Amino acid sequence: MMTSTADGTTATRNDSRRILVRVGIDVAILCAVGLFMQIFLAVAEPARRGFFCDDESLRYPFRESTVASWQLWWVIATGIPLVVIFVTERVRAEVKTVAEPLQFFRWQVPFWVVEAYKSVGMFGFGATCNHVLTNVGKFSVGRLRPHFFAVCQPVLPDGTSCLNKTLNYGRYIEDFTCSSRTATAHMLSELPLSFPSGHSSVAMYALVYCAIYLQFLLIALGWYTCLSRVADYKHFWSDVLAGGLLGTLTAVVVANDWSNLFKGRRSWKIE
């Protein structure tokens, strides 16, 4: 009995160490990518592009963001995905048989928490990679923002500006300085980082990931239901196959032809 208990304790410690190593590797990889991003942002300089004074695409007014940065990062990029992942994994644990809790030193970690950790980890790694790719694109392209003239108010080396149409219209200007007294240093540093849009990249990554995640889990739940009918001796496999195909075909027809989920909305006409 004593030997069995000792062996069990040793096995638990070994498992706990393996978990710590695995988590440590995950964190190290994530930190390495994040560190690369921080070094890149600190060292790299965006490509300097010129402009034409008569470029109407750069003459839009400066406006505050409809979706603020804190809303993007804390609500869209972090809050919604975390809630979706944790709630989904908890619901999955309620509707299907899951593995036994994982022993981590003195604590028992529910299996759904382990699965949620895996999903959150992959999401976080993908989000970091997406952020890296977005910023590499921004710094490589150096595209000026639509509100460039409003924020920068560029002045040429000879002291003239784009207000002097006879001298500067039609010229491609690369040597200039910003003369605005109201623009902050942050606003000026953001001017050549228009492409690709960081807000768009972060929002679409987070929410498309959630959509695919939920889509996969919903299909997996349907598949689990099909398998349970055979396992419970309620149907033959051919019955389940026929029923599954029938339900899938009906769903596709209704979504595509009746609900118009894949087409533009049709207006209702009352005659």
UniProtKB/TrEMBL annotation:
UniProt keyword Transmembrane helix, yes or no: yes
Residues of the Phosphatidic acid phosphatase type 2/haloperoxidase domain: 120-255
Family membership: Belongs to the PA-phosphatase related phosphoesterase family.
Keyword field contains Hydrolase: no
Species per Swiss-Prot/TrEMBL record: Culex pipiens pipiens
Protein name as it appears in the record: Phosphatidic acid phosphatase type 2/haloperoxidase domain-containing protein
GO annotation, cellular component aspect: membrane
Protein keywords: Membrane, Transmembrane, Transmembrane helix
